[in-house]
Design brief:
The chain folds into two domains: 2-131, Histidine kinase N-terminal domain (Globin-like, Orthogonal Bundle), CATH 1.10.490.70; 199-345, Heat Shock Protein 90 (2-Layer Sandwich), CATH 3.30.565. Helix 2 (10-22) packs across helix 3 and helix 7 packs across helix 10 (313-323). It is elongated, with a radius of gyration of 25 Å. It is built from ten helices and seven strands. By secondary structure, it is of the alpha+beta class.
Length: 353
Amino acid sequence: MLHEFVTANRAEIIERCRSKIASRPAPRPTDVELEYGVPLFLDQLVDSLRVAQSPNAAMVKSAGKHGKELLDSGFTIAQVVRDYGGICQAITELAVETAAPITTGEFKTFNLCLDDAIAEAVTEYGKLREHEGSERLGSLAHELRNLLNSAILAFDILKTGSVGVGGSTGGVLARSLAGLRNLVDRELAEVRLGAGVYHQETFPLCEFIEDVEVAAAMEASARGLEFSVTPVAKDVIVNADRQILASVVANLLQNAFKFTHSKGLVVLRAYATADRVLIDVEDECGGLPPGAAGDLFRPFEQRGANRTGMGLGLAICHRGVRANGGEIHVVNHPGAGCIFTVELPRLPPPAPA
């Protein structure tokens, strides 16, 4: 029986499928996809194949659930389809190599299960994505309108000449324009991440931090916050998509400025170990509630009292860092603040000419 063959060779099938997914150039595989997605689907497949009287029913039901779980975990539609395909290839190859006694009818049932599973998972995924997209588009329009309205009102007041550009009204205009710029940068990064379009380049970390510092210092000043940047060694080199990495760090800084208490301090530091490059953004937000750190990188997650924005910044940060082959995590200091850290592979310095 096919389900007995799959059960008996579970470890080998999982290993083969993980190997196929790990070698995939795009979309890039994630640890969650390899460790969680592959065994989950294989177990669902075995359960479905055991239901001889109605081989598709259990699979279809679990496929929709699987599609929702993948979406909630931040997977793309391409990952959903290719993971199902990877399982199919691994099972078929192993069966052929070992000359397993599986009948043509069983293979037909197996392929039908897979076809229905993919169709149902993609349909469920599409429904959820469409709903999420509608919510996101509405939130984006709302956020754009608010920023534009604030900028227009501030500009109209400044035009009268009754207040100076350097006063509080000018500050409102500056914050609104900065917010619009940040929103556009974030959306551009989201589009590129969704399309899987990356442009890797090699550059010194110190130059990258200097570029980020200019805009961040202006935003900190407009919000009445202190902002500190630590010096970066000139021999620290990274290979990454510079635009996406800039969006990641900008999002972390914007969150830090947004939640740090009045006249508080935000620190940007970058440094390196023997094989890793680390970028820290430390704030004075007062810390996170118990258990909140684990959910911060989920889409639409907002934990602070300030509910402006769509709650997408940290989710985009997570995807952006993973696209660059790195990791992101947060250390919570209750009563003080948080330190968000981006870790990237370090390149050796260029050889002397």
